[in-house]
Fold this sequence. Notes:
Elements: H1 2-14, H2 16-39, H3 43-46, H4 56-88, H5 94-100, H6 105-117, H7 119-145, H8 154-178, H9 180-193, H10 197-215, H11 225-235, H12 240-245, H13 255-265, H14 268-292
Amino acid sequence: MRPMVALIKRELLEHRAAFLYAPAILLFVLTLVVLMGLFNRAPEFDKADVSMSGMVLVYQLALTGAFGGWSIYTGLGLFFYYADAFSADRRNNALLFWKSMPQSDLKVLTSKALAGITIFPALILGYAILTGVIIYVLGLIASLRFPVITPPNFGESLLTLVQMSIVGIVYIVLAILWSAPFLAWVAGLSTLFRRWSIPLSILIPGAVVFLEFLNTLGQRDATRPISDFLAWRFDTFIDERAVFGSLIGDQAGGPWRMLEVILQSVNWVHMGIGIIVAIVIVVLASEYRRRRIEA
Length: 295
């Protein structure tokens, strides 16, 4: 267990810029921009005669947007991480060191895969929760600046933050697991083609879809199973309308209703199949490294 922890810590040290420093800088810049906007004069807002009380829903929607934005950052960050991680140690001769250690290629690649679905998302989730705190503080500042704004009290805000954080954590974890085969796909390609894995991960499926389209061109009611499956896989993680409807609209029920909708939307069978595919790709990549890459 200790070697695996050490290997994961190595991944954190080597990629802390993307998952630790860059999010901090991004959050700082966005906070600064919002503060500058709050202290700019907005006469038309000052003259509003409608009391904006009952801001719990607004805070929930703001947290939904925050977790949604950080989930996009997590997805992009993991894509580029996996596109490089499985071959990064071949550029600086670190592979010589790790092959001299009593650690198999399977364990090394497993540590990289686990780092991508554990410690890196955990860091981003921490920034997402911190964003929620900053949103509340900015709301207090805005209420001092514009008296028409009545933010929720501390107890309501804390409860909302805890509830929405649980929902956000579940959502991001499920999104990563749903994306596991795609992340494993680009990681496996990186073992073969190094940084060319980024364009190839898109070009190869694109070429297959294009050939499938040409093969069925002119055929009425033609079926394109590969194209349909990829489109379905990319588009059916959750029902976005139902998720937002759990906060606003006739079916509104708050954060716990949102969590229920998310869990009900997941196709658990295909989730499991995707995770198995990802594991198989990691095993095959480790076998390639063991057999074909000379230390």
